[in-house]
């Protein structure tokens, strides 16, 4: 159990001189608002599928350099007051003032500033940083600070539950209040007795998994009650708990249930009407593993499961077998993740108070039970100078102001429970972090999965946390250390030395990261010396959060520690609509890599058309890695994500919110390797997601197959009910030969660079009867194999094997060559066979059969996005004049000129070495087929991006850490 420090222990410090602050960002004698140009905008948000207006506020005021997307999200999410009333905020000035003046006033009241002049400097600096999108607080600050509502500033909560019914029911209640406010919570259930242990009354305990059902139902109910985002929760169970196997299997078994119900015709898609009938869907599950267990996995030895009350051994299991079951379950449904207990607690600054047993829902905040953490994230790309080097001194100054503000917030903050309030005030946990790392590395010409990229990320993270703890020690000299510091001083100083030692092991590779590392080294030296003298104001300082909504608020290209999602994105236009543009980071990266303006122009144009850099004209293959993305043709390997997290983890107080994405073809062994290597590399937590491992798939008409299967089952049942006649009938296939002269078509194709030809012949009724494939040189082994395959398929077709059967068996078959094709209907193929049978299905199968197989042409997919249906609208026959009118109204409208403001022109600017504009390259305009970057990636690659639809505006969401965030309205799936 976590112990807290009494209030009396916090009041023995004498007042000391406050901070003396110097202006760094703002200008003396001028308010930050007076240095920017303001403009009025109309924010009108509609559901692009239904056309319904979901939000409207006109005449809102923003700086002219804020994007339409950022202003839309801030207006809809963070402006307070009833829409349409005078009480409603209508300007970014009002929003920032509401936050900053509250912080400044609290800082003055609690003695943080030496003089009122220093308080004014603090106010102007904080205002400037927020106004210019250099950083953002987490969402609860924007929701609550400066309003009549409780001043809740924290987004992350950790609860605790004991082995008693009172504690379990209190868990339900506390979690409910946190969900009601739109935040998330995590807890460890390992204190609850297992179902293999006895109660004091003599009966058998229910076990923690049974109590998870009630909590899951509660979360699902509150989610549907209309909170700002869905209930987000984390449930953790120790690996030595006797019910660990039942816990591991909970969500995997439910996924089997979802598949069965789907096949029976129920709506089990994301947000479907029947999905609520399954359990455990509102929580992320994690197993807390020890070094002892992981070593047993390596050695192949047994591992003991122990009673919760006495610690006695209940049974022994094969560690490797249990590890396999964990990985198998994660392969099937993405749960559970792993949390590495000994690593977490080895970096714990407060072990004398209690162990760290759990995390928040996204696994970045790890601290004491019944505690909370408020977050803030910096926009790294803002600190990239014109010469493409990172401005480390300016970054450090920003961190000092931000961490000061974050600590001040605890002085006036409200908390959902008294226990959480006491622990947070006693230990003052903070979570400073950053966003836009992926964009920063690309702009600097560094690959995300490269030694240079990892060194840069590690040094920036080290500088951020070192500067934060340095300022924490300075604050301790002014307003005193955190109340729990005295009893944990030795442990806290030990962890600071561990951070310092980790910083010393970083090996820099170039001048930019060397300069950052030198500043970080000095910061950690100051941390150790100042901390030994004054102590620390905060028990923890840093985490890396998903930065979903606030990432859009800062106009970040990438969230948290994530790489770039795709190379082509959408930009919203003033007055509505959007256009497709190549990321502005790409021209800067190409220039950094030494390409000339005309080369940059050609490469950018290629990316605009293809969505990737493979075979881009003039681009060196050794530079491909700079443009690797989370998804697409050059998707990063799973271990690339793990290695980046491992590079940054030693410089964080908490952990990292990130999911390691694996392709659908990944094996259980690969997931085992990710989990094992994450432990060896020193990560505190790891979560995985295998593509398409869950039933709920966005923009997929799964109902077609389900309904067809249900109809087949009904026919079978009807046949079974009919009277039977005992009769032996022998069926023999009859070959249906093709006519001597038949219609055929020849298709040339390219798959992953391999060229081939397909000739298909049909019967007089249009039914496919033969296929001939040419691939490779005549006489080669490949050509012979393709000839034999063609004959086998052709004979099968003529003997009555349905084409649907071949299509279902050979589509999604994966082997090389694979990749992009030159077919607009099948943009991406996993193999030659995958392409051939997708093409045959589109050429010869009726729409109903293809719908059941989820195979659609490009025109049909576009029609679905525009109308919500793949099928052509029915046109009734009538007079010739009516038919002509119907044809005219369905024809494409003639293009018309639309004035576009200069700031919204669909151009990509390139710069010469002197920085002057030289040419403008038109970017590919939006086609109407996609509305977000997630959908654009689907359009470019032909593969589904496994993200849910936003419940607010209907737009496809995109991954952000271990959550999802909507590009249209900023809603998140559970994390701020």
Automatic annotation (TrEMBL):
Q: Where is the Ribonucleotide reductase class II vitamin B12-dependent N-terminal domain?
A: 42-133
Q: Which reaction does it catalyse?
A: a 2'-deoxyribonucleoside 5'-diphosphate + [thioredoxin]-disulfide + H2O = a ribonucleoside 5'-diphosphate + [thioredoxin]-dithiol
Under the heading SUPFAM superfamilies, the entry gives: PFL-like glycyl radical enzymes
Question: InterPro entries annotated for this entry?
Answer: RdRp_reductase_class-2 (IPR050862), RNR_2_N (IPR013678), RNR_lg_C (IPR000788), RNR_NrdJ/NrdZ (IPR013344), TSCPD_dom (IPR024434)
Domain Ribonucleotide reductase large subunit C-terminal, first and last residues per copy: 154-689
Stretches of Polar residues bias are at 915-929
Q: What does this protein do?
A: Catalyzes the reduction of ribonucleotides to deoxyribonucleotides. May function to provide a pool of deoxyribonucleotide precursors for DNA repair during oxygen limitation and/or for immediate growth after restoration of oxygen.
- What protein family does this chain belong to? Belongs to the ribonucleoside diphosphate reductase class-2 family.
Protein name, as recorded: Vitamin B12-dependent ribonucleotide reductase
Native species of this protein? Nocardioides marinquilinus
């Amino acid at each position: 159990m976590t112990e807290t420090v009494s209030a009396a222990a916090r009041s023995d410090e004498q007042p000391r001189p406050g901070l003396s602050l110097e202006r760094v960002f703002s200008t003396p004698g001028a308010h930050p608002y007076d240095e920017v140009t303001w403009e009025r905008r109309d924010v009108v948000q509609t559901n692009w599928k239904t056309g319904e207006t979901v939000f409207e506020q006109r005449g809102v005021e923003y700086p002219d350099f804020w994007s339409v997307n950022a202003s839309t999200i801030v207006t809809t999410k963070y402006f307070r007051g009833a829409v349409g009333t005078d009480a409603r905020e209508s300007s970014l000035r009002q929003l920032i003032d509401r936050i900053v003046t509250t912080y400044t006033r609290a800082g003055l009241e609690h003695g943080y500033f030496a003089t009122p002049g220093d308080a004014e400097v603090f106010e102007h600096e904080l205002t400037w940083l927020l106004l210019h999108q250099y950083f953002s607080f987490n969402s609860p600050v924007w929701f609550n600070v400066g309003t009549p509502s409780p001043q809740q500033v924290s987004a992350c909560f950790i609860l605790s539950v004991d082995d008693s019914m009172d504690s379990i029911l209190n868990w339900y209640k506390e979690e409910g209040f946190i969900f009601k406010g739109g935040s998330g919570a995590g807890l460890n259930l390992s204190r609850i007795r297992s179902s293999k242990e006895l109660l004091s009354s003599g009966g058998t305990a229910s076990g923690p998994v049974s109590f998870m059902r009630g909590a899951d139902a509660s979360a699902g109910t509150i989610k549907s009650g209309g909170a700002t985002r869905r209930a987000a929760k984390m449930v953790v169970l120790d690996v030595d708990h006797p019910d660990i196997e039942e816990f591991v299997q909970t969500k995997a078994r439910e996924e089997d249930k979802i598949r069965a119900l789907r096949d029976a015709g129920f709506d089990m898609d994301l947000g479907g009407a029947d999905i609520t009938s399954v359990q455990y869907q509102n929580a992320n599950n994690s197993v807390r593993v020890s070094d002892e267990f992981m070593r047993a996995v390596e050695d192949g030895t047994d591992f003991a499961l122990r009673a919760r009350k006495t610690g006695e051994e209940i049974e022994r299991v094969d560690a490797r077998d249990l590890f396999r079951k964990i990985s198998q379950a994660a392969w099937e449904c993405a749960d559970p993740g792993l949390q590495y207990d000994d690593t977490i607690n080895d970096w714990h600054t407060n072990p004398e108070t209690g162990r760290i047993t759990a995390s928040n829902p996204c696994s970045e905040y790890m601290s004491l039970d019944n505690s909370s953490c408020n977050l803030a994230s910096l926009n790294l790309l803002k600190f990239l100078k014109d010469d493409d080097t990172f401005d480390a001194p300016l970054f450090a100054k920003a961190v000092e102001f931000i961490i000061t503000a974050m600590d001040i917030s605890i002085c006036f903050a409200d908390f959902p429970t008294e226990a959480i309030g006491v622990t947070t005030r006693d230990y003052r946990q903070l979570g400073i972090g950053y966003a836009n790392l992926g964009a920063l590395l690309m702009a600097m010409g560094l690959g995300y999965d490269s030694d240079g990229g990892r060194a840069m990320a590690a040094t920036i993270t080290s500088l951020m946390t070192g500067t934060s703890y340095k300022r924490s020690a300075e604050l301790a000299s002014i307003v005193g250390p955190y109340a729990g510091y005295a009893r944990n001083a030795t442990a806290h100083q030990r962890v600071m030395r561990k951070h310092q030692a980790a910083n010393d092991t970083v090996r820099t590779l170039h001048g930019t990261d060397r300069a950052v590392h030198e500043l970080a080294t000095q910061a950690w030296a100051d941390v150790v010396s100042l901390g030994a003298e004054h102590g620390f104001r905060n028990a923890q300082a840093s985490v890396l959060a998903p930065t979903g909504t606030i990432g859009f608020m800062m106009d970040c290209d990438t969230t948290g520690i994530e790489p770039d999602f795709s190379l082509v994105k959408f930009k919203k236009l003033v007055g509505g609509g959007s256009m497709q543009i190549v990321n502005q980071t790409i021209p800067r990266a190409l220039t950094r890599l030494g390409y000339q303006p005309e080369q940059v122009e050609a490469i950018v144009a290629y990316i605009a058309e293809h969505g990737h850099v493979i075979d881009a004209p003039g681009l060196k293959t050794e530079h491909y890695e700079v443009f690797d993305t989370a998804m697409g043709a050059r998707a990063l390997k799973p271990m690339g994500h793990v290695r980046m997290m491992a590079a940054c983890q030693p410089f964080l107080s908490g952990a990292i919110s990130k999911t390691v994405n694996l392709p659908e073809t990944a094996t259980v062994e690969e997931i085992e390797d990710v989990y094992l290597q994450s432990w060896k590399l020193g990560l505190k937590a790891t979560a995985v997601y295998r593509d398409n491992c869950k039933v709920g798939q966005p923009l997929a008409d799964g109902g077609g197959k389900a309904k067809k299967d249900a109809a087949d089952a009904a026919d079978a049942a009807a046949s079974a009910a009919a009277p039977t006649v005992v009769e032996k009938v022998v069926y023999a296939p009859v070959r249906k030969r093709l006519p001597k002269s038949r219609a055929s078509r020849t298709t040339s194709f390219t798959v992953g660079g391999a060229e081939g030809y397909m000739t298909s012949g049909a019967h007089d009724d249009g039914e496919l009867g033969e296929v001939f494939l040419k691939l490779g040189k005549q006489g080669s082994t490949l050509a012979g194999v393709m000839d034999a395959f063609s004959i086998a398929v052709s004979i099968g077709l003529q003997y009555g094997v349905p084409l649907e059967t071949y299509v279902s068996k050979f589509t999604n078959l994966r082997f090389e060559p694979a990749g992009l094709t030159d077919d607009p209907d099948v943009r991406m193929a996993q193999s030659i066979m995958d392409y051939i049978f997708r093409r045959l299905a589109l050429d010869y199968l009726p729409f109903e059969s293809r719908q059941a197989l989820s195979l659609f042409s490009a025109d049909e997919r576009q029609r679905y996005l525009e109308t919500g249906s793949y099928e052509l609208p029915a046109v009734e026959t009538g007079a010739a004049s009516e038919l002509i009118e119907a044809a005219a109204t369905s024809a494409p409208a003639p293009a018309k000129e639309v004035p576009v403001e200069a700031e919204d022109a669909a151009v990509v600017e390139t710069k010469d070495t002197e920085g002057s504009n030289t040419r403008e390259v038109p970017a590919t305009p939006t086609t109407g087929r996609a509305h977000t970057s997630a959908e654009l990636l689907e359009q470019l690659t032909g593969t589904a991006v496994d993200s849910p639809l936003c419940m607010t505006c209907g737009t496809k969401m995109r991954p952000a850490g271990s959550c999802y965030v909507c590009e249209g309205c900023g809603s998140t799936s559970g994390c701020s």
